[in-house]
Every structure is written in C-alpha cells, then in structure tokens.
Amino acid sequence: MKLSKSEEELMNILWKQKKAFMKDLLDAYPEPKPATTTVATLLKRMADKKFIDYKSFGRSREYFPLVKKKDYFSKHVNGLIKNFFNDSASQFASFFTQETDLSKAELEELKKLIDSEILKK
What we know:
With 121 residues, the chain is mainly alpha-helical. The protein has helices at 5-17, 22-28, 36-48, 69-84, 89-99, 104-120; strands spanning 20-21, 52-57, 60-65. Helix 1 (5-17) crosses helix 3 (36-48).
C-alpha cells in the first residue's frame, strides 16, 4: 500500500521522532503548520493502512511507525525500477548516473558501494 504525499511527509516526521504525541508532530512541521484536524485525519488514514499505531495515555495518543523507512522506500524504488525501467536495475543505474548531477566524488562513492556488493556475492 502507498502513502499520499501528505502522509509521507507526516510519516517522515514520525520516522525521525520514532514515537510522538500530536503536539510533537505539529511542532515538527514547518510554518505554516497544518490544522490539528488535518494531522488527525492523516494519522487515522495511516493507522487504517497499518503504517502506524498508537498507545493511549488517558485522552492522549502516542503514535509510532509500524513500517521501517528503509522497507517503505525499498519497495517503492523496486516498483519504480519495474514500472519505468523494464525491471532492469542496470537501466535505472544508467539513468540515475547520467541524468542526475552527481559529482566525480559521488560517482566514485557509488562505484565503491557497487564493488563492495560484488565482493559479497
């Protein structure tokens, strides 16, 4: 299941904070901050999708993620590769390295990562 852009923004805050009450979440938003009711609606939708859960403390709820950030983005990158690059990671890598403005140092770092993964196989 996928999160909307607004849900992803809130999820990123929650991933960063690991657990948070409504006030903590609202405080983490940049200005102009969304309405409390908007955040409450997003939290409900995210809970319905099983991305988050909460513990109740009286009338307050402490929210926490059920899905790891790495798992969420890994699934979507793999979907991107499948849908836009004919399920070819090498086509994706070619596009990524040619169409993004990577410095020589960044390309060398990517090469080190790839060489390291090759050694593991």
